[in-house]
C-alpha cells in the first residue's frame, strides 16, 4: 500500500463520501475510487459499506482508520524532521486550535510569526478541545492551542493566556439564581467543546448539576450560538472575545453570573521531535503573554 492510498482512504472515511474526499484532496474521483478499491482488492477486506451515494466504514474499516492515521502522522513527522535541518529558512508548521482561539486569539500571533519567519508556511486546523488534543497526539499537528483541560499523559501542556467567560442574553434578567438557571433556555456548544466543559465545571463547583439545565439547542460553533442568542432563542455562556462587539452594539447584554476566567493552554507531544518552527512560535507567544 502507498501513503497516497492511505491519505485517500482517511479522507473518504472522514467525509463518508469518495467524491467529496477527491475534491478536498485535489485528485480525480476515479483516482480516489481506484485507491480505495485497490486496498480492498489487495487484502480481500471491504473497508466501506456503500449506502446510496455515501459510504460508511465497516468494522475492519474502523480499525484500519486508526492505523492509517497513525502511519500518515509518522510520515508527516519524518518529513518535518528532515525539513527542519534547513532551519527557519523554509518549511511548514502544522498547528490545531479550538474555535475561540483560532478565530479571536491566535490570528494576531500568527501574523507576527509570519513577519519574523515569512518562509515558514503555517497550516492551521480548527477543532474542539477534544479533537485538537487528538490531532496533537496522533501527530497530525505539532502544536495545539485549546481552552479546555486536557488529561493525556503523552501531551505536555502549559498556560499561554486567559479568557473571560460571560453569560449573555437578549434582555436583562435581573437576579440569576439556581431557579433562574433551571428555567432558562440554554444554547450550548457540542460535547467536547472547551467552552461547554468549562461552563459545566463551574456549575459543578457551585453545587449545581448541569443536567438540570434546559438545553434548547446544541450548536457546533461559537458564532452559531451567539447568533441564536441574538435572535432571542435563549441564553449562553461564551468567551468575551466572541461577544465583545455584540455587547458594545447592544445586541446582547451581560447577565450577572460572575464566571471566572479560563486558561488557554498550548499542547505538544512529549516524545515527538521538536522543530525549530514550533519552538519559534511558542517563544513568540511567551513574549506576548509576558
From TrEMBL:
InterPro entries: LysR_HTH_N, LysR_subst-bd, WH-like_DNA-bd_sf, WH_DNA-bd_sf. Keywords: DNA-binding, Transcription, Transcription regulation. One of its GO terms (molecular function) is DNA-binding transcription factor activity. It comes from the Bacteria. It holds the Pfam family HTH_1. Gene3D superfamilies: 3.40.190.290, Winged helix-like DNA-binding domain superfamily/Winged helix DNA-binding domain. Residues 1-58 form the HTH lysR-type domain. Belongs to the LysR transcriptional regulatory family. This is LysR family transcriptional regulator. It comes from Alterirhizorhabdus solaris.
